[in-house]
Specification:
Largest sheet: 10 strands, mixed
Strand order of the largest sheet: 4-22-5-21-20-6-9-11-10-19
Strand content: 15-25%
Shape: globular
Helix content: 25-40%
Radius of gyration: 30 Å
Distance between the termini: 10 Å
Number of strands: 27
Structural class: alpha/beta
Length: 623
């Protein structure tokens, strides 16, 4: 019976394992300061394998800033934390596939990394723009790992975990870069191989964000910088009235993303050019070119006589698009015309039924197709008529457009700077329109609202409360507007970041004296519920946090059946062989129980034998 680790994996060790798979001779063993054996890279051998290596003060192209090395370490360091379910804040907790997670997004991303590794199709984020008044996450690199883990997800007496990054701060850009780098690095692991990430930015950090993304996602995986017309008025106070934001777009699929992304529906303007004045049985058409430029090819240089008697040859530097035999064949079929009156130069018919069924997205998104900031404010005000609860919400139209391009009907969408939860709203809206089953994961730090703000006066103590209420109200509104969408998922399962459910002795029993160790009757914190334990176990075993959960009684004991029996767990007391046997007969892929759950030592002794007899393929774990 194996013991669950109940903490995130160490990404450094995972990277060493990948390196060992490529260059096994370059990974060796050494000892740390405490004398523990650990894996390490033999750089001398790696240099030989790789050839030319840049090191020391040698000049090279690079993008760096104070604290970058610590930011990289922070992205890879493991944490012992838990996501605790909050049923009272959730909607349709037992059936929904959507998630709303409260907590520091770096910690949350680390917890999600293994379970959602390569599973998220699209990430959209709207991080702080760093305008001089924005908040940045305060990741204190000077803390020891113990202090960091202890403080992770916690707040001071005023509830602050963010700091205002003023332009007078000597680390103005540095603090923002140290904040965004580790989050993007962990997010990359979660992104699917054919997935994409969209990041909205303004001029303040666009150039820095572009360099960071080139490094993390790869220069070859850059797709586009989209110019979004977020403001269509004019500011008379500005030298040049600002009217746009940037949207950085990267995909792990690189240039092949064009084969994956969806086309946009044709609009009235593009359709209006196709007509059928001659009642062609193939449907509407428009005129297209019949000559092609470039090198002249044999067989594509000939002269034809039009019905009007004119002789026509390809202009200089061009050639016909088809052989002469094919040309006259098409004339006979009516797919080549000589002007609209039959007396002009030849042109080919381009039929609407034969062209690409949709439009390729452009790199400029005007406000009429992608919305603007005033749209976002009006949308939120219509749902919160009692107060102005959020200053800078993105318009639903923008995220709706991004999701339509980047996702199919069953994909997962992640937003780890969730804010007012526009992304959740847009996903539900699109699902209602096309019958999709896209799932969203929203992550937001419970940043406290200003005491003098309208949001606080309306009863919203932090941004998470605004986001959750927005999803509730948007879901009801969308459901009412789309009564045909009977299976529309407008629910969300709320989870809250907290310290691990396990007592310190679970992780470091060597630090406890033997006398005290044996007096401890439990390795689980006293304020944690069985459902708290279940969700930490689900993360540990890479079970999606949106999986169905059923609570059953088996031989008189409370048992959780997750994902239709993929995982069965019990944390009840006095569990005997009868309960274990009945569970084993259900043949789950995983079974988990607490060592403190066993009625006696015989249960633990017979545990594995029972499963070997009834379900030998079940992986049994204990905590």
């Amino acid at each position: 019976m194996d013991k669950l680790m109940m903490h995130t994996t160490d990404s450094v060790n995972a990277n060493l394992e990948r390196l060992a798979a490529l260059f096994p001779n370059c990974v060796t063993e050494t000892t740390d300061e405490q004398g523990n054996v650990r894996l390490a890279v033999d750089y001398d051998k790696l240099r030989v394998e790789l050839g030319e290596v840049v090191e020391g003060n040698e000049e090279r192209y690079q993008f760096t800033w104070p604290g970058k090395r610590d930011a990289m370490r922070l992205a890879n360091s493991p944490i012992a934390a838990a996501l605790r379910p909050v049923r009272e804040d959730s909607v349709d907790f037992d059936t929904t596939q959507n998630l709303y997670i409260e907590g520091d997004n770096l910690d949350v991303l680390k917890l999600l990394r293994e379970t959602y590794l390569g599973k998220v199709k699209m990430i959209y984020i709207d991080p702080p723009y760093n305008t001089g008044n924005d908040f940045v996450y305060e990741d204190d690199f000077s803390q020891t790992s113990e202090d960091y883990l202890a403080n992770s997800g916690q707040y001071d007496e005023q509830g602050n975990r963010l700091v205002v990054n003023t332009e007078s701060n000597g680390r103005f850009h540095t603090d923002w870069l140290n904040m965004i780098y580790p989050r993007l690095k962990v997010a990359r692991d979660i992104l699917a191989d054919d997935g994409s990430i969209f990041i909205t930015l303004d001029d303040h950090e666009y150039s820095n964000a572009k360099k960071i993304c080139d490094e993390i996602f790869g220069v070859n995986n850059f797709v586009a910088t989209i110019i979004w017309e977020n403001f269509y008025g004019r500011s008379n106070a500005a030298a040049i009235s600002p009217a746009h934001n940037y949207i950085l777009l990267y995909s792990k699929a690189g240039e092949n993303w064009k084969l994956i992304r969806n086309l946009l529906p044709r609009d009235e303007k593009s359709l209006s050019s196709y007509k059928n004045p001659d009642d062609d049985p193939k449907g509407p058409w428009r005129l297209g070119p019949i000559f092609a430029s470039g090198e002249r090819h044999e067989g594509l240089m000939y002269t034809i006589q039009t019905p009007n008697g004119d002789l026509i040859s390809p202009p200089k530097g061009s050639h016909w698009r088809m052989l002469e035999s094919e040309f006259w064949k098409r004339v006979s079929e009516g797919s080549i015309v000589f002007g609209m009156d039959g007396k002009g130069a030849p042109a080919t018919k381009l039929y609407l039924s034969e062209v690409q069924q949709g439009l390729v997205p452009r790199s400029i998104w005007l406000h009429d197709e992608a919305g603007h900031t005033q749209d976002g404010k009006r949308e939120l005000m219509s749902m919160f008529p009692e107060a102005s609860v959020f200053d800078t919400p993105k318009p639903v139209k923008l995220i709706h457009l991004i999701t339509k391009i980047a996702c199919n009907k069953d994909d997962i969408i992640l937003d780890f700077f969730s804010g007012s939860a526009t992304t959740a709203h847009a996903v539900m809206q699109l699902n209602a329109e096309d019958g999709g089953n896209r799932k969203f994961i929203m992550v937001q730090l419970p940043e406290v609202t200003d005491e003098k703000s309208e949001a606080r006066k309306a009863g919203y103590v932090n941004i998470c409360e605004i986001g959750k209420e927005r999803i509730r109200r948007a879901g009801k509104k969308i459901k009412a507007e789309h009564p045909e969408a009977k299976d529309l998922d407008i629910g969300f399962r709320v989870l809250r970041l907290d310290s691990s459910n396990m007592e310190d002795v679970y992780y470091t029993p060597d630090k406890f004296e033997a006398a005290n160790l044996f007096t401890m009757t439990d390795n689980v914190k006293s304020d944690r519920s069985e459902e708290d334990l279940l969700f930490q176990v689900m993360l540990e075993l890479d079970v999606p946090l949106s999986a169905t959960i059923k609570c059953e009684q088996i031989a008189g004991k409370k048992v959780f059946v997750v994902a239709d029996g993929h995982l069965i767990a019990t944390f009840d007391r006095e569990v005997n062989e009868t309960t274990v046997t009945e569970i084993a007969k259900q043949k789950p892929n995983f079974f988990v129980m607490r060592d403190a759950s066993a009625a006696n030592d015989n249960v633990l002794d017979n545990f594995e034998q029972i499963f070997k007899h009834y379900s030998p393929d079940t992986i049994c774990k204990i905590l």
